Amino acid sequence: MPLVLRTATGAVQSIKFRAKIGKLWLHGKGHFSMESTKFIPRARLVDRDQFLMDCARGKSVLHIGMGGCIDDDAVTTAYVSGDLKRSFHGKLSRVARSLDGVDINPKSIEAMRRAVPGNYAVCDVTSPDLASEFGDKRFQVVVFGDVIEHLDNFRTALQNLCSVLEEDGILIVSTVNAYSLDAILKMLVRYESVNPEHTVYFSYATLRRLFEMNHLEIVDFKFYTTKHIERFGSLTFWLSYRLSSLLVSVFPQYAMGLVAVVRPSAGSG
């Protein structure tokens, strides 16, 4: 067989083989199958704090979880000893039309009340008393930032937060990404990069399923990162940070976290 013909035949066979692999992934069974419904949407990479502030700008806002830890008093002490006016809650106070805050940690609430005057409540987001803390007051935006992964009763928390929304209000939920590049790379050396108070990992699919089960619809979805690190402890840290930042800018699905804007589904009551 002439060389050109053999080359052409080989190319055709290669294309057919790749097509078979594609069909196996999309329509096959077992570990190597890929269902078309499981592809996540293309979503923009955003700075978490800036995105949340843009959503809250000029609105009546309830901020859930303002900092500190329940099981680590040293972390809480370090947090409340800082400049809380520069905290995320402090930033929210400068863009929101009105701002209320809720935290389960009384030490955090006491310190925040001194630094950023406003309306605050010490309350568990899963408590039936949450709505009564605000009487008839309702909010255009509820910011539920990186709190849901600390809970064990998601349904009650989501129901409580929806109960304090205005009719057209939105709930913004952010959480760490189960597929973050940082976590994946550290797992290569058997290191689980997780906050000791976290109870669960979320991905886009599992978060979407949780919302569906609680009659919530996603109206906007983003992957998030946080402000750039300015000081590095070592050259290795600097190199790994730069490399991961570059990769995440191209493949945002490996970003640090997820942020979803949701509202009660039509007819959910």
Name of the CATH homologous superfamily of the largest domain? Vaccinia Virus protein VP39
Q: How many β-strand runs?
A: 8
Tally of individual helices: 9
Helix content: 25-40%
How does the major sheet shape up?
A: 8 strands, mixed
Question: Which stretches of 5+ consecutive residues score pLDDT under 50?
Answer: 3-8
- Radius of gyration, taken over Cα atoms and rounded to an integer in Å: 23 Å
Strand order of the largest sheet: 1-7-8-6-5-2-3-4
What would the CATH topology of the largest domain be? Rossmann fold
- Under CATH at level 1, the class of the largest domain stands as Alpha Beta
CATH architecture of the largest domain: 3-Layer(aba) Sandwich
* Broad shape: globular
Domains counted in the coordinates: how many?
Answer: 2
Overall average residue pLDDT: 86
Distance between the termini: 72 Å
Provide the β-strand percentage band.
15-25%
Report the structural category.
alpha/beta
Encode the helix/strand succession as letters.
HEHEHHEHEEHEHHEHE
Attribute tags:
alpha/beta, 8 strands, 20% strand, single chain, 8-stranded mixed β-sheet, 269 residues
What does the model show?
The protein folds into 2 domains: 1-39; 40-264, Vaccinia Virus protein VP39 (Rossmann fold). Helix content is 38%, strand content 20%. It has helices at 3-27, 48-56, 73-80, 88-95, 106-115, 154-163, 181-187, 204-213, 235-250, and strands spanning 45-47, 60-64, 98-103, 119-122, 139-145, 165-176, 216-225, 257-264. Strands 1-7-8-6-5-2-3-4 form an 8-stranded mixed beta sheet, with helices on both faces. α6 (154-163) links the parallel β5 (139-145) and β6. The protein is globular. Mean pLDDT is 86; it is low at 3-8.
